[in-house]
Design a protein that fits this description.
Elements (H helix, E strand, L loop, with lengths): L14 H22 L30 H10 L4 E5 L5 H8 L7 E4 L3 H10 L5 H13 L5 H7 L8 H9 L7 E4 L2 E4 L4 E2 L24 H15 L3 E3 L12 E5 L15 H5 L5 E5 L8 E6 L16 E6 L6
Parallel strand pairs: 1-2, 1-7, 2-6, 7-8
Antiparallel strand pairs: 3-4, 4-5, 8-10, 9-10
Bound molecules: S-adenosylmethionine.
Amino acid sequence: MKPAPAPSWDPKTDPDLDALCVIIGLCFYWLIMLGCMPIRLTPNGSDIPMKPLRPITGYQGGKRRYARLIAERLTAFGCGRYYDIGAGSGAVTLALISLGVSPKQITMVDAGPWGWVWETIGKGEFDTMYLEDLLQKAKAMPPQNVKAWVESVILHEAPSPEIFLILQAASFGSAPVWLSRDGWKVGETGWRYCARGYWEPPPGSREKNPRGTIFSPDGMLEAAKRVEEACIGLDGRQCRAETLRIEGGAAVYIDPPYEGTWGYGTRMDWRAVAGTHTPLIVSEGCALQGADEAIELAPRKEGAFKGKSRGRPEEWLSIWNAPVGC
Ligand SMILES: C[S@@+](CC[C@H](N)C(=O)[O-])C[C@H]1O[C@@H](n2cnc3c(N)ncnc32)[C@H](O)[C@@H]1O
C-alpha cells in the first residue's frame, strides 16, 4: 500500500496563520481609527482625551450650561491669556481647561468666597482631606440629620474654603453663600444662612428618589479632586474686580451679578473693570449696547410678555471682538 503523504503546511488552511492575520488586521484598524480621532491635549500635555471638568457644587447664576460655548468663543480669539472675572463656581475656567488651555494661562477673580477657593486651589493649598472628612461625616449620619449638623456645627467652624463648599452645596436652591463681618449669609436677603432640608417624594410624585441636604457627597468629592488636580497653577484671586489691572493681549470674560440682582454680597461695575479692553465677552440679562455681537442664551419663553418673563430669566452674551491672534 502506498504510504500516505506527510502532512504539508498549507497557508490557506493553517488556523494559526488565520489568527495572526486577524490580529494584524485589527492592529491596522485601531491605528487608523486612532489617527482619525480628535485627541485633545490635557493641561499637563498628555494626549489622553479629557472628561470635561464640572463645578464642585451648584451655584445660582453659574454658567455650567453655556460654559463650553463661552470657552470656545474665548479660545477662538487666539490669545495666550484668559481672565474669568466673577468666576464663581468656575464653570468657564473648567471648560477652558477641558478644551486644553493650561491653568497657568488663566486668572480667576471673585470678590466672594469662590475667590478664596480658587486662590487656594491655584496655590495647591486646598485641603481635600478636610473636605473628604466633612463629607464622610455627612454620609455617616441619617440623611434627615444633615441639615441640623450643617447649621449647628459647620456654620460655626472657623471659616475656610472647604467649609464654604459644604455650606454652598447645602444651600437651598443653590443660592449664593457669602461671608460678612457677622458670619455666613445667603442670597439676596442677606439673612443668616440656613440649609436645605431632606426631602422625600410624597406618594404619587413623579420624583422617585429622596433628595439629601447635600445632593451627592461622593459626586462632590470626585469633582473636587479632579478640579484640584487640573487647576493647580492658575492665578486665583479673591478681590474686587475693579482693583484688577488686565494685561494687554488677553481674552476677558466677565460674569457680573446681573443688573437688578443683589444676591452675592457685592456688586460689580463691569464697565469700569473692562475699560476699553478687547476681546471681551460679558454676560448680562440683556444685549449690551456697543457690542459687536450679542447671543441670546436663554430665550424668553413663548407667551411671556415684556418685563414679566416666565420660566428662566433671559441671559445674553455680548461680544467685543479684536483682531484674531491678539
Ligand atoms: C453671576 S455670578 C458668576 C457665576 C460664575 N461665572 C459661575 O459660572 O459660577 C457673579 C459673581 O460675581 C462675583 N462678584 C460680585 N461683585 C464682584 C466684584 N466687585 N468683583 C469681583 N467679583 C464680584 C460674585 O461673588 C459672584 O460669584
